[in-house]
Write a structure and sequence with these properties.
Layout lengths: L2 E9 L4 H11 L4 E8 L3 E8 L2 H10 L3 E12 L5 H11 L4 E7 L6 E7 L2 H10 L4 E2 L1 H5 L2
Antiparallel strand pairs: 1-3, 1-4, 2-3, 4-6, 4-7, 5-6
Length: 142
């Protein structure tokens, strides 16, 4: 299963992140996970939210540059080497990782949000190897 990630490009200036969060809050869009990276001129905010379509629509209406991307949310066992084993499975199937960030859900096993070079192929490889994936809707229930 896949999730839709909401990406927002924001200028590196005081208060701009707060403006994004206010738009989401004002439209009942709940943040389930996020990653913020920056360059000298802008930031890239990646979000897993309970309602990515509304989030994108409302942020766009408020002047933010946004996009939706298919990503995988993958459960990983809490044991040394689990992430490495998962990455080896993907690499052996010639799937590259574009980016990844962590996600924690109320004491559950660890999870990561992963963007792969071929998301559909990665999803099938994970299914074939018994790896559990989650949707944003499933995460929002916790």
């Amino acid at each position: 299963m896949m999730a839709k990630q909401l990406s927002v490009f924001i200028e590196n200036r005081k208060g701009r992140l707060g403006e994004v969060l206010n738009v989401l809050k004002g439209n009942n869009v709940n943040i389930l996970s996020l990653s913020l990276a920056d360059t000298t001129e802008y930031g890239l905010l990646r979000l897993i939210v309970n309602d990515p379509v509304t989030g994108k629509e409302k942020l766009t209406e408020n002047g933010f540059s946004t996009m939706l991307t298919d990503v995988l949310v993958i459960k990983i066992k809490h044991k040394a080497g689990s992430l490495q084993e998962l990455l080896e499975v993907l690499a052996s199937n010639e799937i590259s990782i574009e980016y990844m960030y962590g996600l924690s859900i109320d004491g559950m096993e660890a999870s990561v949000v992963l963007k792969a070079s071929d998301v559909e192929k990665a999803k099938q490889v994970l299914i074939d190897n018994g790896v559990e994936t989650l949707t944003a809707e499933e995460i929002a229930k916790f």
